[in-house]
């Protein structure tokens, strides 16, 4: 099976494959940041939270923009997942902001429990997304191989 250079603008299997390394590095960065935050004072921790929130919002915007660009080529299922996830994130953030104003011990404990549950859910979602990315990337590699074989056979 040959691997001819695709026309300009056409994706290659290497494109999604290269993103897997970026994903892995991002996960390591997040783990290091969170582990380091465990020993930070409240002011530094608050700054780290604000920074992470900004990054997450920027990422959501990039994801939405990318989804808009590829919507014509992909089923609406992924777009629906993106929209549903964003609604979930928005709802959770509203709850966090509301609870920040509360000082009742029981409510603060509940807010901490909810925040930990939300973090666990976000991590579980990311794991499933990684598994889907693996499937999609392997499917892209196979589709490209099939296309290359068909091109060779047509010669």
Structure description:
This protein is mainly alpha-helical. It contains four helices and no strands. Helix 1 packs antiparallel against helix 4 (105-154). The relative contact order is 0.10.
Topology at a glance:
Layout: H1 14-37, H2 42-70, H3 76-100, H4 105-154
Short description, anyone?
This protein is mainly alpha-helical and 155 residues long. 83% of the residues lie in helices and 0% in strands.
Class based on secondary structure composition and strand pairing:
mainly alpha
User: What is the gyration radius calculated from CA atoms?
Assistant: 21 Å
Mean pLDDT: 79
Main sheet properties: none
Strand content: under 5%
Approximate helicity band: over 70%
What labels would you give this structure?
155 residues; disordered N terminus; mainly alpha; elongated
């Amino acid at each position: 099976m040959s691997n001819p250079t695709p026309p300009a603008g056409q994706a290659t299997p290497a494109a999604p494959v290269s993103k897997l390394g970026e994903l892995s590095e991002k996960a390591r960065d997040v783990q290091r940041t969170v582990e380091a935050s465990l020993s930070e004072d409240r002011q530094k921790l608050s700054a780290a939270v604000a920074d992470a929130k900004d990054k997450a919002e920027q990422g959501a915007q990039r994801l939405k923009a990318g989804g808009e660009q590829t919507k014509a080529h992909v089923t609406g299922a992924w777009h629906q997942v993106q929209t549903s996830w964003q609604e979930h994130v928005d709802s959770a953030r509203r709850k966090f902001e509301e609870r920040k104003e509360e000082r009742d011990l029981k409510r603060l404990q509940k807010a901490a429990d909810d925040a930990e549950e939300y973090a666990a859910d976000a991590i579980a979602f990311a794991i499933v997304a990684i598994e889907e990315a693996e499937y999609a990337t392997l499917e892209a590699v196979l589709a490209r191989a099939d296309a290359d074989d068909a091109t060779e056979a047509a010669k």
